[in-house]
Amino acid sequence: MEADEDVRQGLVHGLRWGLKKSFLDYVRRMPDGRGSVSDGAVPVGTGDLFYEHDAERSDAGVWAFRGDVRFSGHFGMLFVRVAHPWLRIDGTNVELSIEDPQAREDAPRIPLVTGTLRRLGSQDGTEVWGSEDVALTAEGVALFNDVYAEGEPFEPLVIQLPARPTD
Ligand code: HEM
Description:
Blueprint: H1 3-8, E1 14-17, H2 21-29, E2 34-38, E3 41-44, E4 48-53, E5 62-66, E6 68-73, E7 78-83, E8 86-90, E9 93-98, E10 110-116, E11 118-123, E12 126-131, E13 135-136, E14 157-162
Antiparallel strand pairs: 1-4, 1-14, 2-6, 3-4, 4-5, 5-8, 6-7, 8-9, 9-10, 10-13, 11-12, 12-14
Bound molecules: protoporphyrin IX containing FE.
């Protein structure tokens, strides 16, 4: 079965995210633009990333995902790392943070985007959540060279988690 089909059928738990389509297209247009996906993340479909669920680091308020995604280009001047996204859940608000974009050890995580969480349903032991109104945080602006302002729309999040026994 294709990875894409696994995700659709809810057999895999993780975060599916297109990050920001226009940014991915921009990197693709660069003659030396590169993307790498590792450590628990895989590409799915035509432009989405799938970060696998990290159950050990998750709890009721934090949904943790694993995977290291990096973009580079402009002869090394552009380097963007979106690694190990964690979702902090506060009611219906969600804040997605990532590891230090420069991959410095022991540097704090930074909040990248926020959104409103909606439960989309459950099926076959998997709960599906989504956020449509995903927007860049103030802290995330520098990661994209100050090109996008705070509040810039990013792609929707789709989250698939193991269903709780009460579901
Ligand atoms: C050598 C230095 C750079 C040059 C010459 C450059 C050039 C450009 C140009 C011409 C555009 C608009 C055209 C297009 O969309 O294709 C653009 C957009 C953009 N650049 Fe750069 N850039 C540079 C460095 C960077 C760096 C270091 C970043 C850091 C992430 C960055 C992030 C972006 C972003 C996010 C956009 C908007 C993409 C979109 O959503 O449409 N750029 N850049």
